[in-house]
Design a protein that fits this description.
Blueprint: E1 6-8, H1 27-40, E2 44-47, E3 49-50, E4 56-57, H2 60-73, E5 77-80, H3 90-95, E6 103-107, E7 111-113, E8 116-118, H4 122-135, E9 138-143, H5 147-159, E10 168-173, H6 183-193, E11 201-206, H7 211-220, E12 224-227, E13 234-236, E14 239-240, H8 244-257, H9 265-272
Helix pairs in contact: 1-2, 1-8
The protein binds (5S)-5-amino-3-OXO-hexanoic acid and zinc ion.
Pfam families: BKACE (PF05853)
Cofactor: Zn(2+)
Keywords: Metal-binding, Transferase, Zinc
Length: about 280
């Protein structure tokens, strides 16, 4: 592995715009952020959208406009979140796939999520996986805990490889209720990932203060990186994150130090089996 896929997750569904004014919530803010992050070295954008009051939404019209706007304004691979917020019903989360993204997330199990529960039933996961196969959408399997990798093994064994034939997982570490954001936990995951189909790739993100340890561990274990204000709001002790660009720039710096420079969107497409534009 010679390069690094850098995914930016700029918005998420958890933070409020009033608390975090730098959070991109309108399509114009999201597109401007995505453009700047692409110029810095990001190749995928993981997208959650907001309504006119900056609340999380899975509105179909807005999702379609967002996919179109990001495609027009950037060369990034557009990955819609099918996770939404912990309050979104399964039907709305499945309908995210109707908005025509190139990639979408697919979380591999239920996890406590702070004081809430992020529900991902087996039948729902199977629905997401098989619909993505049918529609030519490349999944990113989101893993919040070790056993979810075993569920992924079961899913692939029963229902086959995803569209494009390549398996890519994203370790979301340090969620209160999920696995810890530590090098030891990342290495444990990496050992299980070795039992997935040959060539399986992984990226990792650490929530909050686990951001740096997870980033460094992932680079040294041959993994890729996800960064952004969905996951991290503090840059260093007492220093709030100023922008998504600040987080992407830091990730690019670490990737270059590790002699694994950022992959372009075209290179990332080739690696992950996402068709060329
Ligand atoms: N907002 C979280 C409850 C995803 O994007 O697929 C779920 C999440 C995962 O962010
Ligand atoms: Zn997300």
């Amino acid at each position: 592995m010679t390069g690094t896929v850098i995914t930016v997750a700029p918005t998420g569904a958890e933070s409020k715009k009033v608390d975090v004014p730098a959070l991109p919530v309108t399509l114009a803010e999201l597109t401007a952020t995505a453009k700047e992050c692409e110029a810095l070295g990001a190749s995928i954008v993981h997208v959650h959208i907001r309504d006119e009051d900056a609340r999380p939404t899975l509105d179909q019209g807005r999702l379609r406009d967002t996919v179109a706007g990001l495609r027009e304004g950037t060369g990034l691979i557009v990955q819609l979140s099918s996770g939404g917020s912990v309050h979104d019903p399964e039907s709305d989360r499945l309908a995210v796939l109707d908005a025509g993204p190139e990639m979408a997330s697919c979380t591999m199990g239920t996890v406590n999520f702070g004081d809430d529960v992020f529900l991902n039933r087996w039948e729902f996961i199977v629905d997401l996986h098989t619909r993505m196969q049918e529609r030519g959408i490349v999944p990113e399997y989101e893993i919040f805990d070790l056993g979810q990798l075993t569920s992924l093994q079961r899913l692939l064994g029963k229902y086959g490889l995803p569209f494009g034939g390549h398996v890519h997982v994203d370790l979301v570490m340090g969620v209160p209720g999920g696995m810890p954001g530590t090098a030891a936990a990342l290495v444990a995951c990496e050992r299980v990932i070795r039992d997935l189909p040959e060539g399986t790739t992984f990226s990792a993100t650490g929530i909050g203060r686990s951001s740096l340890p997870v980033m460094l561990a992932s680079l040294s274990a041959g993994g890729h990186l996800r960064v952004g204000m969905e996951d991290t709001l503090t840059y260093a002790k007492g220093r709030p994150v100023e922008s998504n660009m600040q987080l992407v720039a830091r990730a690019v710096g670490f990737a270059q130090l590790a002699q694994r420079p950022p992959l372009t969107p075209a290179q990332t497409r080739e690696l992950l089996g996402v068709p060329a534009r």
